[in-house]
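Notebook entry, structure prediction.
Reason for the run: the old model in the group folder had no record of what sequence produced it. Starting over properly, with the input documented here first.
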Amino acid sequence: MEYVSTRGSAPALDFEGATLAGLASDGGLYVPREWPRFTEAEIAGLAGLPYAELAARIMQPFVGDSLTPERLRELTAKAYARFAHKAVTPLKQLDEQQWLLELFHGPTLAFKDVALQLLGLLFEEFLSRGGDPLTIVGATSGDTGSAAIDAVAGRARVDIFMLHPKGRVSDVQRRQMTTVLSPNVHNIAIEGSSFDDAQAIVKRMFGDTAMTGRFAIGAVNSINWARLMAQVVYYFAAALQLGAPHRKVAFAVPTGNFGDVFAGYVAAQMGLPIERLIVATNVNDILHRALSTGDYSAGTVTPTAAPSMDIQVSSNFERLLFDVGGRDGKALAAQMTGFEATRAMQLTNAQREGAARLFTSARADPDQMAQAIRWAFDASGELLDPHTAIGLHAARTAGIDPAVPVVTLATAHPAKFRDAVERATGHRPILPARLGDLFEREERLVDLPGDYDAIAAYVAAHAVPRG
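New structure, fully documented this time:
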């Protein structure tokens, strides 16, 4: 399998190269040169497999010669052995049509674990073959940071520098990052900044030859293809349980960076019969505006009770625009360069029409989010975190044929957002026992200004250089 950049001028890489590179050298994102496709019979043959085995089967075409099938199965078995539920991503039914896909049974209680537990093992596997030590630089709006840190803490030949906007993540999210005291973990709170500001710093570092010449910089954000690849699996897992390939399924996905829902798009390209992908946003609604009107224009980030969605620049949207717009890297590079200069652009007709074949979208304000939390609790006794509630609001208002099951991706444990859940329901969720002492643990982090030079200097002072 060969990977190409959405902007057309970076060299093509194999799976190992794309995993270690993260962002392409031309500023684009790596995607497979072509989508592998399963027949209906092949999909039916996946039913009933344990999750780790299903993951290995789904991912093998993307991995190519970088890992043998036997080694990939060993890595998936190890990655998913740490999950608290034997099903890894269990389904729960809310009513006749609405379902929850619980993605929060990993070590840090968020869907990011499903991909990052595997990605940490992939980094270790590939780095053991030689080459330069890896310097991971990432930005988080809450959950990516803790999941990535858990996945690579203590691993050889890897340092991780995780940026988060100071004061804009929940106390649980912050402590899940800052109480990991491994020497290869560096938490940076960016003062006076949003997630978009932090992400812009990370992307700039990938293009800074003074940094990339000295350090092998890699990515754990969903700009890294391997992360998206691992997320494709749970769409298959849920759909198979609900009757695929002989029955279509719709998915509602709370998203800010578009990675989680793009994984659903990949599943559809592979042959999974998906009726609709419903993109659910909060008031930071650039994706809803882009999909409904073609207006991809970034505004000012509004802090909300769903901080992982407080984003105005959705990095992975570029992958969709590339694929539905004819895979013209040169044209997309010009389009994205214009957006980066003006923070505004209009989707082309081809992009809008291509997206509309599978995607719809919805926006939830704080009241609608709270109402969805209350509805789930009243209807089924389930407590939802704010992000999942936004997905459920979109699912229940999408007008999907009643014969089609609608699966909302439950992206975080409700105890990560205790205050918002308690305000909506009067019930305060508790952390699982394995995190019960989180608020007694020592924290370690550094506060830095939202200035690229300050961040780059800190990374340079603490990372292990090439050679």
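Summary: The longest helix spans residues 225-241.
The old model has been moved to the deprecated folder.
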